[in-house]
Amino acid sequence: MTDSGNLNPYSLLRSFTMTRLDGDLDRLKDLDLSDLRGDRLFGCPNRSFDCDDTNIARAVYVLVYQKAFPTLSMETLDDRTYRGDTMNSFRTLFGKMNDGKAEIEDIMDVPEPLSVKIHRFFHTCHTIGNMVPLPNKKTTTTLNVMRARLWNDYFDHFLIAVRDYLYEQSYHESFTPLMEANDFAFGPYTGTEWGFATLLERLLLQGYNDDGSLMHSLPIALKQKKKLPQELYLQEAERFIDFSTRLISDRADLIIKSLHLKLH
User: Fold this and answer.
1) How far apart are CA 234 and CA 237, in angstroms?
2) Cα(263)–Cα(58) distance, rounded to whole angstroms?
């Protein structure tokens, strides 16, 4: 176990609030966690930097999501039993950001209002409302990598596959064994509709199921970036931003409300 695994999440978050948020925990909602790159306490000391794996993100996971996964702790995050995951990916639709410009802006005629949304969303993606802990036991790969490989990082498609697995309605040659490897976390939620609904509630993911469908991205957009007409692609991109931004904001409010209760 590294020093990160020995950190106290309560003390860490209190210290972070005082030193990085000027004593105002509510400011965590809009904080771009990429700003913690190189921070030896709150960032990712002695490991590769990733916003969703910073020490402060880990502390939030432990304080907010232990009811979902009782074995979630700073120790089990440090030994990779669990791993933070970014839900709504920027690169899925917009590519990398290079020198202040998204790749999509080099290949498509992006209207100025949408360009402003894209640049704002780049930072929103790095905020705590867009992050969730997942069990991380691997077969040939992990859930994080499998999600990108099978569903191009669309979190709604991933949740549909989780739901079908928990309902025991489907078998996938690579995804099912991976879910079975993580039964220590998903086991309590298998076999009933109650289980999946409870998992969503405990992970603050109800926003994906607000209309009962879970589906919020166009299926045709999954792996057809170069095949879609530009107008349709940009419409889907803007819809993705609008939905994801609302979801991230709502989750952040719930996260901070939970943290206030834990810290007082």
Assistant:
1) 5
2) 16
CA-closest candidate to residue 105, choices 217, 235, 222, 234: 234
3-class DSSP assignment, residue 202: helix
* 136 confidence band (pLDDT: 50, 70, 90): very high
Instruction: Report the alpha-carbon angle 129-216-171, nearest 5.
Output: 100
- Give the Cα separation of 46 and 98 in Å (integer): 26
Classify 167 as helix, strand or coil: coil
What are the pLDDT digits (tens) for 81-96? Answer: 999 999 999 998 899 9
CA distance linking residue 97 with residue 140, whole number of Å: 30
Which helix (DSSP H) or strand (DSSP E) does residue 112 occupy?
helix 112-124
Determine the pLDDT at residue 189. 96
CA distance 232 to 247: 22
Stretch (H or E) spanning 165: helix 155-166
**From CA 156, how far away is CA 149, in angstroms rounded?**
14
The amino acid present at 71, given as its one-letter code, is T
